[in-house]
Amino acid sequence: MAEHTGAQCDGAADDDMPELSDGDDDVDNDEGQWLEEEEEDSPPAMVTCLFCERLLTSVPAVLQHCTEEHRIDLVDVIRRHNLDDYSYIKMINFIRSTKCAASFLAGLPDAPLPWGSEDFLRPVLQDDPLLQTDPEELCEDSSLLTGPSSGPESHDALQRRVQAAEERAHSSEEALTRAMDDLHKLKLLAQGLVLNAGTGNLGSVAELREDEDEAYFGSYGHYGIHEEMLKDKVRTESYRDFMYRNPDAFRDKVVLDVGCGTGILSMFAARAGAKHVIAVDQSEIIYQAMDIVRSNQLEDKITLIKGRIEDIKLPVETVDIIISEWMGYFLLFESMLDSVLYARDLYLADGGSVYPDLCNISLAAVGDASKHREHIAFWDDVYGFNMGCMKKAVVPEAVVEVVKDDTLISEPAVIQTFDCNRVCLSDLEFASEFCLKITTTTECTAIVGYFDIFFQKGCGNKVMFSTGPQVTKTHWKQTVFLLERPVSVQAGEELRGKIIVRKNKKDPRSLWVTFDLGDRKQTYSLQ
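Predicted structure:
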């Protein structure tokens, strides 16, 4: 039926974050004094000693004061415990908050250090100059505290600075590599969680609110899509022939048409002998359907109801037949079968039937080098530029198009069959192994999927149609899953693989389709 393709942070983490100065509390006062302070020579920021109340004019002066007056060399403490930026900040705030003696620092063991808690990232003094100082620079420039250095000592210090910078750069590169690896693992994990989640929450369309489903039904309010479906003779004439050639199945029956659109199936049913037809559709096309029914003098047999089948109540307790043209691309796209099964379980009488009653999905291998060049290899050279990275975004999008019969390089294989009178909602997500018997020695560039539809139960004249590439094309076309790298195949051999079909949990009307071809695995979206 389809015709269009188409952070929240954990509050618990706040406890581990340092409090940051908002800067808004004193904004009024600051603005009033801003120009005045700019015009005056502001005095140098004074630095409070860590172990007494003495104010000094600079960080080096504080370090020298601590060495001379308190007998503690803070640079030596930094080096001895190999403190990084965060550990240094924690140490400064630990000393200021606990008011520990200098002798306590001098006697510290190598580990564990008493300032390990993240609480010590919170500044004790606002705008503390000691917190704005790089501990590595303190260590490298500690010679400033003891006066000017000789030439050789300055050269050695410069060499140590360069070596330290190189070590930091190397360490940063390693950290970046580890972070990228972790990010890749997280992507794989997230994909696995989405694709392999249990079926306890199937993401049924019945669980969608009406406003969440508005875009889907809105698309069927446009007339062009109905015109294209009606002009699809394979589709429309198959439904007509099924009903007109099997009048005994419809005579004096109550029929439910789920997703009636223009009402064509309802009118076929009425003409075939149905006693009463109830036609349901949520889209705006239902109003045109009402006019169409009246124009054909069938208003006494057909009742039209606007709404989702999941949200309305029918004027009858049971129906004898449910008809619906619910199929989407690759059969299951749009998940309208969910609504048909909902109606079946709620309204279908014992001995009744859903039509079409049988359907299957088939796969075949495709060897179309020109199409592969057009969609995939194209990105390797775009006006002289390499855009190969685009393949990672392009390949996962399934393509809906007509596949030429002469590009098929394998016999088709049915991967799944559904009996619409028995199938459960959970069956619509499945995994299936497949084997494609290759008929041509070439390169496999894609896997194509399509479906077949059958009207059989209780029918003296059975009707079926296919959406495959070997027969007359339909508006469903075929669904093509392009391979990023073609696979060399030989006539007579078998291409084996596994397919997994899952609903997108965030949008249950769209699909995730994963192919596992042994040495390669690719997930495609159909949305």
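Summary: Residues 2-40, 144-153, 196-202, 215-221 have pLDDT under 50 and may be disordered.
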